[in-house]
Amino acid sequence: MDTHRRAFLGTLAGAVAIGSGRKLFAQEAATPPPTEDLIYQCPMEPEVRLNHPGKCPNCGMTLVAHVPEAVEYPMDFSISPAPPKAFVKEELTFTLYDPRTGKQVVSFLEEHEKLFHLFIVGADLDPTHFVHDHPVFGPDKKFRYTYQFAKPGTYRLLGDCFPEGGTVQLNPKTVIIPGGTMKMPHLTKDYAQRQMTNMGVSITTVPEVPIAGSETRIFIHLTEAEGLEKYIGAWCHMLGASDDLIDLMHAHPYIADGGPEMRFDIYFPRARGYRVWFQFQKKGIVNTSYFDIPVLDVESAAKLP
C-alpha cells in the first residue's frame, strides 16, 4: 500500500504499515557544497535525500547521513488505575523496546521539538476531545501522560517517537472505557470555512472527490494569517482518522512557507469517510480545526456524474 507524507496506518490489532510515494529532492536554495559522497536523508521522510547536511525542506528535521532500515519497535502500554474509567484521571505509560535485542529503549531523539507526540481520538470522532500532547520522559526511561477520558467507549491512541539508532515510530493502541459505547459517525463532505481562535481556515482537494490509493492534494487556505508561527517545528500538523478508527494518518505540509496557503499530498488507503484535523499556531495561540473528507474507490468514483 502506498502512503504519503509519512502516513501511518494503524489497525485495531496494533500493526503499522509504513510507506511513501513522495518525489525525491535533489537540491534546495543556498545549498552548501557536497560532503564527499554521503547522502543525507530525513529520518521522518527517508525518501527526501540530499548530498549535503541540513534540514528537511518539508518537515524541518535535521538530515542524517545514514538512515537505518525501517523496523517496527514494540511498545508496551499500560493504564493506572485499572480497569480504566471515564471521568477519572488515568496515568498512561508507554515503554518502547528494541526489536533486535528485546531491551527497553532508553535514548530518544527529538522529533519536531519533542521526544514523544501523543494523539487521542474517540470512536465518535468528537472534535472537542481531540488530543495532541506530549508525555513526560521519566527517570525510568518511560513516557507518562495523565488523561481523563470524557465518556465510556472506544478510543484510539497514537504514540509517535524516535528511538536513537532506529527510525521514527508511530504505534497505535486501543483503549476501551467500560460503561457504554460511542456512535460511529457517518461522515459526509464538509470543506466549509472554519473560524478558529484567531484565524480562519478552509480546504479544497484535487481531485474534488478523493480516490483510495491515489494521491490527493489537500490545499489549506488561511484567513487572518499574519503572525503565523511554526507549531512544534512545523507550519501545520495533520491527523487523519477513518470513521471506523482503523486508519490513522499523521503528516506535515508538502508545501508551506509561513503564508496563508499550504499543500498536503496524501494517499488515503481505503474508501471510507475521514475526519482530518489541522493545527496551526498564530502569535502563540494554537488553532485546531477539522474537515470531513469522503474517499471513494475507483469504481464508485467513475459512476459520478
Descriptive notes:
With 305 residues, this protein is mainly β. Among the domains are: 75-177, Immunoglobulin-like (Sandwich); 194-302, Macroglobulin (MG2) domain (Immunoglobulin-like). Helix content is 2%, strand content 38%. The chain contains one helix and 21 strands. It has one helix at residues 298-302; strands at residues 8-10, 16-18, 40-41, 49-50, 75-80, 89-96, 116-122, 131-133, 136-137, 143-148, 153-161, 169-177, 194-195, 200-206, 215-223, 228-229, 237-242, 248-251, 261-267, 273-282, 285-294. Strands 16, 17, 18, 20 and 21 form a five-stranded antiparallel β-sheet that branches. A hairpin with an 8-residue loop joins β14 (200-206) and β15 (215-223). The radius of gyration is 19 Å and the shape is globular. The two termini are 28 Å apart.
Quick structural summary:
The protein is mostly beta strands and 305 residues long. It has one helix and 21 strands.
CATH topology of the domain at 194-302: the name is Immunoglobulin-like
Could you spell the SSE succession in H and E letters? EEEEEEEEEEEEEEEEEEEEEH
Contiguous low-pLDDT stretches (5 residues minimum) are 1-35
Radius of gyration: 19 Å
General form: globular
Q: Regarding CATH, which class of the domain at 194-302?
A: Mainly Beta
Amino- and carboxy-terminal Cα gap: 28 Å
DSSP summary, beta strand count = 21
Question: What does the average pLDDT come to?
Answer: 86
Helix content: under 10%
Strand content: 35-45%
Helix/strand structural class: mainly beta
Please give the CATH architecture of the domain at 194-302.
Answer: Sandwich
CATH superfamily of the domain at 194-302: Macroglobulin (MG2) domain
The description of the largest β-sheet is:
5 strands, antiparallel
**Count of runs of 4 or more consecutive helical residues:** 1
